[in-house]
Write a structure and sequence with these properties.
With 542 residues, the protein is of the alpha+beta class. 27% of the residues lie in helices and 29% in strands. It is built from nine helices and 28 strands.
Amino acid sequence: MNRPQGPEMPPDEPDVPEAAIEPRRGWLPSLVWVVPLIAALIGIALVVKSVTERGPAITITFNNAEGLEPGKTQVKYKDVVVGSVKSIMLSKDHSHVEVGVQLSKQAENFAVKDTRFWVVRPRVGANGVSGIGTLLSGAYIGVDVGRSQETQSEFAGLEAPPPVTGDQKGRRFTLHGDSLGSIDIGSPIFYRRVQVGQVYGISLDKDGKGVTMQVFVAAPYDQYVGTNSRWWHASGVNVRLDSNGFVVNTQSVTSILIGGLSFRSPPGQATGPQAADYTSFRLASDEADAMRAPDGIPVRAVMYFNQSLRGLSVGASVDFRGIVLGQVTDIGVDYDPGTRSFTMPVTLELYPDRLRRRVHGQPVPEAGTGESQQLLQHLVESGLRGQLRTGNLLTGQLYIALDVFPKAEHVKFDVTRDPIELPTIANSLDALQTQLADIAKKLQRVPFDQIGTNLNKSLENADKLFAQLNTEIMPQARDTLAMAKQTFGSAEATLRQDSPIQADVHQAMQELTRTLQSLNALADYLERHPEALLRGKTEDKP
């Protein structure tokens, strides 16, 4: 073979013969390649297994990523791991975080529309302390599996655990009330003072005139919620003063601290048919309001007062001889330029259906009908008036009383006005205050200053008179008294029994007695012999 030209080799280097290469007839793999091949096969098998066992990938948004770590934070359902957090990213507008979660194969049906996710951390809430175990293991994402058939890959995470999960047995109801009071998510629900459920949703009505609450009553207590059940606020302590003294009513210490709701059938009625899921109920402010019969359609009325309304507030009751017919809804003031005077209009909301009595064997006519207008006209002509009265002497709170005053002055009444203008009458206390004011005005006209000046002058004159009596008249009076005493002494000496004058008087009285006896005898004789006056006394013949 010819060698390629290159640098000169040293002359002493021997030539090396070129090896001849012959191809092998058969190829056998070396044992060195067996181990990588097996590893590759195992890796492919693991990848295939991972792909086949991997569930859907979802994205959950939270306000913050506190306690969450990619590759470490797990997703658990009933303390069973069903996924893990793969990534955490900040949203484009920086308002929240987006957490990427990879669910396992067994949780592939978790990615539905009504599934809820939340971060389990240590929390202190209305239901107590929760999530204590995460102090050691770290936070994790909890799941409440939905029942929808519609799949979804993006979810808005809850900032707090839901009070009621989908696997709890019971029924859900909707309550409509005027105010939220002290109710919050997780507030308890009581039935005969036994906690049977809790509040899990709160929202404001679209018109802004009330609130709506979603409540859950757990089984088997949900069987006591009937179609005739009444619901009310059971928060705080209810203190009432009646003929039995002070009555304190409350549900539990929990309801005092965080509020609560309660329900029951009306007294004397059995629990009605079981209420269906999501049945709506009215929420009353207290038990007395809840147990009251349905009010029916309210009637707006207005009363004009010419006195101070201090002590009268919105919500004050309007009653008719102890029966509450409504409440005050507004208090205002009107100025009349013609008379240059102020009047105080008070707007009322009355419920005529609360009058359960009958008139001449017939039921009370319905509000707004001609019969009800005739009845109201007759009552006003008979003396129906509104009057302010004191409801509490300690606080000075006022209420409006409707009553019939037969001696009330006749007033013009238009039953067709809207709102109805009901006449008023001053109460006895105001009348007394008016009389006292008149007396005070009369007393102001009395010239007390002049009377005082005259009285001072009279006292000065009396002083002078007493001084004159003491210096001039008293000595003369003493002499006169001495002379009178001497005269009385002489008279006493004269009138004594052993005095000569007394003996002479006694003798003279005896002579006078004998003389009277002689005169009596002469009178008797002349009566028998009247002729003796002419012929004289004749001797009596034997």
